[in-house]
Specification:
Structural class: alpha/beta
Strand content: 5-15%
Number of helices: 13
Number of strands: 9
Shape: elongated
Largest sheet: 9 strands, mixed
Radius of gyration: 22 Å
Order of helices and strands: EHHHHHHEHEHEHEHEHEHEEH
Length: 346
């Protein structure tokens, strides 16, 4: 095991592709514009379908609400969350005397407002240490984009002026170590590496020792991504937490679970099992761009009572965004034909 700093030069395209690192794309956009573009598939599966339904039905009634319920469930909002949204919508209709109304804008605006209120519950800010480094354990099964999310998070936090240290504690796969090493170069941050097959907790311990010598503001730790059904994985995560806590009181400050939004309700199932064993404090939802299953954001937030802290909306290193319920729901409901709402960001 050793400490490794950024090397001169940029890795080749072949290296990046071999490690599964995603290609960068064009210059960054405003948050709303980015979400509007990247959430197109989910917007079509919820907002556009809701508007089409209203055009077909022509007025707000029980039949429309029943079909709207089916639309939400098919977009992976989840049965429990959908039921709560529809019941609250019924109450608003009763209270504001909208039964039989032909006001489609009121319907979509009210549904958007209900979703925003639901998503605003909980603390979405990253917890920080009162003194010493803030330490974040990142967990999740293989294939959800965990290592990529770590690289993008490191880039974002460094851009905010923080000194970052990455730790490659997923020692069960050489590819995971290599991929995080490449991301450390792209984000221009140091990394603590271990050899494949070595004890993950010993890599974490080395990172803690490194942090005492050259203190960072933030330590981000990649962990093994084997299936959540294996109890030894949970034991390893617990051991790493003890090692961290012995060196820095109160750490780790966050245990962030990475979920692939494109898997819909399967992501919710994964989260439930991790939550039972790992003390998860927040979520990172990846691959929201291109999926029609973005309703899972509502499902995991509501049914697990866990805040979504970051979302992945593209392939660029800039495409991990702090979750903003207002921007998210506005982008979700800007259906075809509406005026661009991003003028204030230009």
């Amino acid at each position: 095991m050793f400490w490794k700093k950024k090397q001169d030069g940029v890795q080749s395209v072949q290296e990046a592709q071999t490690a599964g690192v995603e290609k960068q794309d064009s210059a960054p956009k405003g948050l709303f514009a980015k979400l509007r573009d990247r959430l197109k598939a989910t917007r079509e599966s919820i907002a556009q379908k809701a508007l089409n339904l209203f055009r077909l039905r022509g007025r707000i009634d029980d039949e429309l609400l029943e079909e709207l319920e089916e639309i939400l469930i098919s977009a992976d909002v989840g049965v429990h969350t959908t039921t709560e949204l529809i019941e609250e919508l019924r109450e608003r209709i009763r209270r504001e005397k909208k039964r039989g109304s032909e006001d489609s804008k009121w319907l979509t605006d009210t549904l958007r407002s209900l979703m925003r209120e639901m998503l605003e519950q909980g603390d979405r800010t990253l917890k920080t240490a009162p003194e010493g480094p803030s330490i974040y354990l990142i967990i999740g099964v293989n294939g959800v984009g965990k290592t990529t999310a770590i690289g993008k998070l490191a880039h974002r936090l460094k851009g905010e002026g923080r000194k970052i240290l990455l730790t490659a504690a997923d020692t069960f796969r050489a590819a995971a170590i290599d991929q995080l090493d490449i991301w450390s170069k792209r984000a221009d941050v140091p990394i603590v590496l271990g050899k494949e097959g070595s004890d993950p907790s010993s890599v974490v311990f080395n990172a803690m020792e490194k942090a005492k010598i050259d203190p960072p503001d933030v330590i981000i730790i990649d962990t093994a991504g084997r299936l959540h059904t294996k109890s030894n994985l949970m034991q390893e995560l617990s051991k790493m937490s003890r090692v961290i806590g012995r060196e820095f009181e109160g750490a780790p400050h966050e245990i962030l679970l990475v979920l692939d939004a494109s898997t819909g309700q399967n992501a919710l199932s994964q989260a439930r099992q991790f939550l039972q064993s790992c003390g998860v404090t927040g979520l990172i939802l990846t691959k929201l761009d291109g999926t029609a299953r973005g309703g899972v954001v509502l499902a995991v937030h509501k049914e697990l009572n866990l805040p979504v802290k970051f979302i992945g909306v593209g392939e660029s290193i800039e495409d991990l965004e702090p979750f903003d319920p207002d921007a998210f729901t506005k982008a979700l409901f800007q259906v075809e034909g509406e005026q661009d709402e991003d003028e204030d960001e230009k």
